[in-house]
Amino acid sequence: MTLGDMVDVLHAKVLVGEEKLDTPALTACCSDLMSDVLAFVNEKTVLITGLTNPHVLRTADMLDLKCLVFARGKVPTDDILEGAADQGLVVMTTKVTAFTACGLLYEAGLRGVPIEWPEGEEQ
């Protein structure tokens, strides 16, 4: 699946990075807690969130994320969008909830980030 395919699946509007929609999306994660994203995401992925503050941008930068999807029709401020453009991110918004966005993307073949369980802990 490409980021462009995601636009179609989510009926999303691209806010930044339209020229990069041919980028492959291999996995996705969904969270409004950036500490969880930092703790569990270890590969280049797509972040689905409803959080539109600068923490999202810093998290994306730290993890070299490729795309931010803002759920529930949320649109970040111009300074966030400018920062995303500077980082080379694709940013889109969709009117569906984060839960629905995840379901639609999963149904279309995109999977979540695999979680590594610490040795000795049961799943």
Q: What number of structural domains do the residues give?
A: 1
CATH topology (fold) name: Udp-n-acetylmuramoylalanyl-d-glutamate--2,6- Diaminopimelate Ligase, Chain: A, domain 1
Distance between the termini: 29 Å
Low-confidence stretches: none
Report the average pLDDT across residues.
91
DSSP E strands, number: 6
- What's the main sheet like? 6 strands, mixed
Task: Indicate the percent of residues in helices.
Answer: 25-40%
Describe the structure using short key phrases:
37% helix; alpha/beta; 6-stranded mixed β-sheet; Udp-n-acetylmuramoylalanyl-d-glutamate--2,6- Diaminopimelate Ligase, Chain: A, domain 1; 123 residues; 5 helices; globular
What does this structure look like?
The mean pLDDT is 91. The protein is built from 5 helices and 6 strands; from the N terminus they run αββαβαβαβαβ. It is an alpha/beta fold. The protein has a single domain (3-112), classed as Udp-n-acetylmuramoylalanyl-d-glutamate--2,6- Diaminopimelate Ligase, Chain: A, domain 1, CATH 3.40.1390.20. A 6-stranded mixed β-sheet has the order 1-5-4-3-2-6. The chain has helices at residues 3-10, 34-40, 54-63, 78-87, 98-107; strands at residues 13-16, 27-30, 46-49, 67-70, 90-93, 111-112. Helix content is 37%, strand content 18%. Strand 2, helix 2 (34-40) and strand 3 form a beta-alpha-beta unit. It is globular.
